Amino acid sequence: MLIKMDKQKLTWKAVVRDALLELGGQGHLSEINKIVEGHPKTKTNPSWRDT
Questions:
Q1: What is the pLDDT of residue 1?
Q2: Residue 38 has pLDDT above 60, yes or no
Q3: What is the model's pTM?
Q4: Which of 8, 12, 31, 43 lies at a CB distance of 3.0 to 4.6 Å from 27, suitable for a disulfide?
Q5: DSSP, res 36
Q6: What domain of life does the native source organism fall in (predicted)?
Q7: 3-state SS assignment for residue 38
Q8: What kind and span of H or E run contains 22?
Q9: Domain boundaries in the chain?
Q10: What is residue 12's DSSP assignment?
């Protein structure tokens, strides 16, 4: 049974972990940012790249 998670409630750690998994376990910061920038959490945090 899959549990549908509210993407807005995920922690930043989980968001970055998912991006790294998508990249095969490692990636340059610019690659991680490219994936993360489309996440709903970035809409409520304009300084997400700086944190």
A1: 38
A2: yes
A3: 0.77
A4: 31
A5: H
A6: Bacteria
A7: coil
A8: helix 12-22
A9: 12-50
A10: H
**Cβ-count burial 21-34 (b if 16+ within 10 Å, e if not):** eeeeeeeeeeebee
CA angle 11, 47, 5 (to 5 degrees): 25
The answer for residues whose C-beta is within 8 angstroms of residue 40's C-beta and 6 or more apart is: 7, 8
CA dist., res. 17 & res. 41, Å (int): 14
45 against 51, higher pLDDT: 45
Give the angle subtended at the CA of 32 by the CAs of 31 and 38, to the nearest 5°.
100
What pLDDT is stored for residue 10 in this prediction?
87
Q: Is the model's pLDDT at 3 over the cut of 50?
A: no
Task: Specify the pLDDT at position 7.
Answer: 66
What six digits make up the tokens of 6? 């509210």
CA distance 44 to 27: 25
How much is the average pLDDT of 16-21? 95
